[in-house]
Amino acid sequence: MANGGTVEQDSGTRVVLRYNVEGMDCPSCASKIETAVGRFGGAEDIRVNYHAQVLAFRLDEAATPRTAVEEQIRKLGYGVAPVEALRVAASEPGAAIEDEGSGRASQAWWKGAKARLAAVIGALTVAGFAASLTVPSLGHWTYLPSALLGLAFFGRKAIAAARAGSPFSIEMLMSIATVGAIAIGATSEAAVVVFLFTVGELLEGIAARRARAGIEALGALVPRTALRVEEGMAREVPAASLKIGDLVLVRPGDRVSADGEVAEGESEVDESPVTGESVPVVKTEGAPVFAGSINASGALQVRVTRPASDNTIARIIRLVEEAQEAKAPTARFIERFSAIYTPIAVVVAALVAVAPPLFLGADWGTWIYRGLALLLVACPCALVLSTPAAIASGLAVGTRRGLLVKGGGALETIGRIRAVAFDKTGTLTEGRPRVTDVLALSGSERTMLGLAAAAENGSSHPLGRAILDRADAEGIPLRPAKDSRAIPGKAVEAVVTGKRVGVGSPRYAAEQARIPDEADRMIVEWEDQGKTVVVVSLDGAPIGLIAVRDEPRADAAAGIRALDAMGIQSIMLTGDNIRTGQAIAATLGLKVKAGLLPEDKLREIGALRAQASVAMVGDGINDAPALAAASVGIAMGGGTDVALETADAALLNSRVTDVAALVGLSRATLANIHQNVAIALGLKAVFLVTTVVGITGLWPAVLADTGATVLVTLNALRLLGYRFKGAAAHG
What we know:
Belongs to the cation transport ATPase (P-type) (TC 3.A.3) family. Type IB subfamily. The two termini are 36 Å apart. The chain is of the alpha+beta class. The chain has 26 helices and 27 strands.
């Protein structure tokens, strides 16, 4: 799908369409729209996100024109407008969030159609009550205007939903109950029913707006304008017009207008709006910066590396919206359950209304009234909302913290894990190893180091970068290399000055040629010190050793302790040698499996997963197979492509303590889901009994449904105030 675009040409007459659907505030709304669109020929791959009010689908316009789909959505009672590229909004408080082209702006809730309808129905109901007191003989008729107005509004939506494939919608159940109440003379209760239902719909919309506010606030982080440097002058231009390679001036106190890297200057940058990192980060030449972060002290010139449509904030927004579209397993189960439950509930309500009068000679009016009340009690709205509302809040809280989760399924799974497997380099360690020792077995150390650097030139592996940094620090020129190749988990080889140079593990080097005893002793000594040793060879013969050490992250030990306190086993999987692995593991307090090739890591993940759910935490690049094989993959990385796209979750701040924070958030979300289900089913069970025995009537029944929906929503919103505890809270 084109970034931020309404339409993307697929092939021939097939297009991918994205729409804003105004008024789609709950899972029931989303289900009606998904069912309606799915009935059109040529419509497929339908994705509905009621949190963001976005509908996306693929359509063959030779079979169905898009205007037909748009018209059907309007018939269901929703507004529909194409989604355009996100317009960067002003960051001043109270500024409206708009979508370019569609002109959608956040409107105050009391100005909406539902608020106006609730006010009118409420006023008519009060007027009817006053009139019935004044002229008691007209009591039956004074409530009719409010009841009929509500029935006209919701009845039309019910009929449209039934024609579009959703006959058992909440509007249909409410409309049947209202018609029945009017027919048996209970007009006052019919008026109260439509009023309470309208208020419930209004409250659902308000709650959904609050849940959406977090994502809208992300869009407002990026400034509308930027100072582009041209010919030594800084000129104000729209931030959306910046291109890769442009140079931008960021003054002290300004927000960074684009993703890029520092080309000139030094300053502290507050990245908390983007990543949740509370401590300002020092940025010098070459350091990456994120759009939306705040420059604290010195002036910076930033070279743009990403267009506005693909900066970190835009990608986070897309990721969160896609996560909200992905239904959690619990939500899918409840939707399937509701699809069976609702028709059965309608049949039971009908039997309650007609069976006692027919077979027991009971009063028709009494039992029809009870059947109608039971129909309202049976509405599944609160139950259907119980899981997605909690998941949406959990995802929003995680995003604020820099914990990005790809969907409710992943968020649920994280809370159930019993083991976490960590990669070592770049995950438990800083990923910035330094050369600590150099030993030449033949020739000079400088020559040996120069050959190793030439072979590693262009490598992205941390050990290769460490060797290149050491050669650069010593002023050793890089010789040209050709025919470079990497042997995964073993070595890097290249032809330098006509000879094949290899830089590999001691085990691999020993397979190629005998390593001198002196070198063997030095390898053991260095590895016992927690260093990684590579052997440099020339045409297969060892010519030197290089020792590299990568220090553990400052929060790694605290992160492992936090997981232990949660009853979660931690294990380190590393391709490094056993002695180096054990030295790091002993420092951090976890188990270790070392000397693993990529396929060995997969086998270890499989063994752990056979016992219980397991998470794999890696850098998102070398560990992609293991991340995919685990129950849930968690990538470390400050907003990199791989970190955001490879795994099920990403830790933007690369903090080990954030793994425990993510588990804690997931467990809190699961607890919230269980509470919501208990609220929804508990209230229904109570009112089911009281309705059948005649203790409660129509308006308490609709209050049971509306009240349960409101309670479930408020309980889910309570998650937005979730506080991370202990080490996980400090990082």
